Amino acid sequence: YDHREQGLCYSAESDEPERSRLNGGLASTVRLEDGAASVLENINDATFARASMRDLIAIILTYACAGVHHGVKHLGCLVASVHESECVATCRGAEISTVAREILRGMGDPQVDPTFIGSDNFANVLVGSTWGSPTRSRHFLRRYYILLQRIRDGENIIGHVKDEENVAD
Q1: Contact 70/60 with Cβ under 8 angstroms?
Q2: Are the beta carbons of 159 and 28 closer than 8 angstroms?
Q3: What's this model's pTM, rounded to 2 decimal places?
Q4: How far is Cα 149 from Cα 48, in angstroms, rounded to an integer?
């Protein structure tokens, strides 16, 4: 909100050297004060509201130190848990990053490394990375199939982002 009067500033260069968002396993470091990374990244969030409210997903895609796609949309389907709503947001974010990777490839900047996908729901990250057991998520595990395929193909990588640092929150 503090930067609402500033325009977008795209830059192929950053003061920070390129490094992975992931620290060790699935934990990541995202600091809002550092601004957007110069590489393609995708961070998502979702709500799981009461019956009287609408469930929402938020998706932000950044590249060249600025936001290149962002939006808040209705979830568009019925879900039974927060984990499932986060799964929908992550899978839709992965779809958008796939399109962005193709656009960048066509523009002569193919993305060699997987695109980081951030989620503040650790259960979502565990199942999406296949590090966790989907025991209580089997009823919606089909949603993860395409995401897992993208991760296996090296197109994406998923990591946990602390709730207070989630730009899509």
Answers
A1: yes
A2: yes
A3: 0.67
A4: 26
Looking at residue 96, its amino acid is I
3-state helix, strand, coil in the chain (%, to 5): 35, 20, 45
**Which backbone phi and psi does 17 adopt, to 5 degrees?**
-70, 150
What type of residue is 137?
Answer: S
Q: Is 66 exposed, middle or buried (0-12, 13-18, 19+ CB in 10 A)?
A: middle
**Distance in angstroms (rounded) separating the CA atoms of residues 159 and 138:** 21
90-137, pLDDT tens digit by residue? Answer: 989 999 999 999 999 999 999 888 898 888 888 788 877 766 665 666
Q: Residue 138 has what DSSP assignment?
A: G
Q: Could you report the per-residue pLDDT of 42-58, keeping only the tens digit for each? A: 888 888 776 556 788 88
- For tokens 């990588």, name the residue: 157
